[in-house]
Amino acid sequence: MSTGFHVVVLGSLVPDMLQTLEPVQGPAGPGLKNELMLPAVLDPWAAHALFEAAHLASQHAGSKVWLVSLGPKAKLQQLMMSIAQKAPFELVAVDGSASGFADAFAVAEALAGAIEKIAGLDRSRLLLFGGCASASRDAGTVVQMVGERLGIADQFLAADELRVSPDGMLTVLERVEGGRYLVSDVAGPPCVVAWATGNLPEPPNNPQVGMLNMRGIMPALQKAASAPLASTGTTYVSVEVPKQDRKTRIVKDVPLDDMAREIADWIKA
């Protein structure tokens, strides 16, 4: 396609998965202990979406990629320092909570509002990318709700591959049960693609790409609009780390049927 695509990627920060996360009940509701001090990374599923978007844009002249991120500005700045060298994009920052306790509907509303304000965005060429889930919220609904807010009916919510034919037809491989794929053809954008793992490795750092990105990232962070996430009535009585209950018994020469029966009885109890 000579006109290319306008790809908007939804992705924000999550605490580094190697950190120990301890939930606490604060005055503003539940959160993580020392949350602002925890190292942050780009959400893994959102990272797949960003890498796929950058690869797609590189294959089609005239394409452009925006990364729309909702999170505290200070933490977003730290995050951008690490991912700016991975792929070319224009940042659209929204200053708000990136907590996993934030309501998915409120998050989707804030993200959709930010997308609607992007100057020069052509809705007829729009591909809305994001992760099929999140390492913090894991609601699996934000990308879908943003697409609905933008009036996009064609949605694929667990994609591993997107192919573009010479005539502009999009072919999406979407995960279904049994380790199989649902293969769907759509005439073209606009459409929503929530990525599972994709097929691309993490790209290497490119300092030149990083310098180009940072020219737009810092101004975007400075003018990031505040988005207080309103509660929709969800309340948390308490938050705590699940307790581990490990009981190990080593036995020999036990029939498989007896082992399965014992496990089933333990689960029922």
Describe this structure in words.
- This protein is an alpha/beta fold.
- It is 29% helix and 26% strand.
- The protein has one domain: HUPs (Rossmann fold, 3-Layer(aba) Sandwich), CATH 3.40.50.
- The chain has helices spanning 44-59, 73-83, 104-116, 142-149, 207-222, 256-268; strands at 6-10, 13-15, 23-26, 29-32, 40-42, 64-71, 90-95, 126-131, 155-164, 170-176, 180-186, 191-195, 225-226.
- The strands form 3 sheets. It has a 9-stranded mixed sheet, with helices on both faces. The protein has a two-stranded antiparallel sheet with strand order 2-5.
- β3 and β4 (29-32) form a beta hairpin.
- α2 runs antiparallel to α5 (207-222).
- The chain is globular.
Give the helix proportion (percent range). 25-40%
Profile the largest sheet: 9 strands, mixed
Q: What separation lies between the terminal Cα atoms?
A: 60 Å
User: Strand order, biggest sheet?
Assistant: 11-10-9-12-8-1-6-7-13
Give the beta-strand count. 13
Class by SSE composition: alpha/beta
**Domains, number:** 1
